[in-house]
Design goal:
Helix content: 40-55%
Mean pLDDT: 96
Number of strands: 7
Structural class: alpha/beta
Distance between the termini: 37 Å
CATH topology: Rossmann fold
Keywords: Hydrolase
Protein name: Alpha/beta hydrolase
Family: Belongs to the AB hydrolase superfamily.
Low-confidence stretches: none
Organism: Paenibacillus anaericanus
Number of domains: 1
CATH class: Alpha Beta
CATH architecture: 3-Layer(aba) Sandwich
Strand order of the largest sheet: 1-3-2-4-5-6-7
GO molecular function, one term: hydrolase activity
Length: about 270
């Protein structure tokens, strides 16, 4: 097996007995946690990593078939936990990483203590009258086509929309993160993310979960967070004042507060 810690550019910091793993969202890497990590590294051991194809991961380990669904990324999370011989992990996942963490916990519940989901969605596509995910199929097709035809244009269009913050520096930071990706890999990760449907997996999840939902999120509408809370047993739902899809960047204080309150109360 290839060296997992090199493959996923794993960094271990902090002094605590219990471990927090931070899983980044689509289009990002572990640097997106930079405003959050300092508040936890004195009490917890922190694991940061990049999914294959993101950040400083080993891009030669990318396999289009493996990563055509979220299960390839799930396997990477499980590999990291096994390589470091971890248990009772708190997994904090942003966006698509929320589902990746949940799927990993279904496969190996013994590895996990709690899940914290920031801006999660089990299904981004609308399904008739029954389910509102926020996107029509044509929206996603358009997004994937734009990534293929004009990747830089897609990055500059998508970043301010997703960040939804008046500070242009935050959108620029996100745009740079998007632009640094390999366009082919990024498009495949986008397809694996936006076309996935993990609603049927929610009933299999057993690990206690905090759902953190932003109040005005162009990627994940409030109805999705409420749907998750309804279908995930043992879940806690917190609606944030933060707007946008990246509260750990735009509103780190509120994000830290909600995480701490949950960890101390449960």
């Amino acid at each position: 097996m290839d060296n997992v810690l090199v493959r996923n550019n794993v960094k271990v910091i902090g002094e605590g007995k219990q471990t927090i793993i931070f899983g980044h969202g689509f289009g990002c890497d572990q640097n997106m946690w930079q405003y959050i990590v300092p508040s936890f590294k004195t009490k917890y051991r922190i694991i940061l990593f990049d999914y294959v194809g993101s950040g400083h991961s080993d891009i030669s380990a990318y396999n289009a078939e493996k990563y055509s669904s979220l299960h390839g990324y799930v396997q990477d999370v499980l590999d990291i936990i096994k390589s470091l011989d971890l248990k009772d992990v708190i997994f904090i996942g942003h966006s698509v990483s929320s589902m990746i963490g949940m799927l990993a916990s279904i496969e190996r519940p013994d590895y996990f203590d709690r899940l914290i989901m920031i801006g999660p969605s089990p299904r981004y596509l609308n399904e008739g009258e029954d389910y509102f995910g926020g996107f029509d199929k044509s929206d996603i097709t358009e997004l994937l086509d734009m990534m293929e035809m004009n990747f830089v244009g897609w990055a500059s269009f998508m970043a301010p929309l997703a960040m939804n913050n008046p500070d242009p520096m935050l959108s620029q930071e996100l745009e740079q993160s998007f632009s640094s990706l390999d366009p082919v890999i990024a498009r495949q990760f986008a397809a694996a993310t936006f076309l996935s449907d993990h609603r049927s997996d929610l009933s299999k999840a057993t690990v206690p979960t905090l759902i953190m939902q932003c109040s005005d999120d162009s990627i994940v509408p409030i109805q999705v967070g409420e749907y998750l809370h309804q279908h995930l047993k043992g879940s806690t739902f917190r609606l944030m004042e933060a707007k946008g899809h990246y509260p750990h960047i735009s509103h780190p204080e509120e994000t830290i507060t909600f995480i701490n309150e949950y960890l101390q109360s449960s």
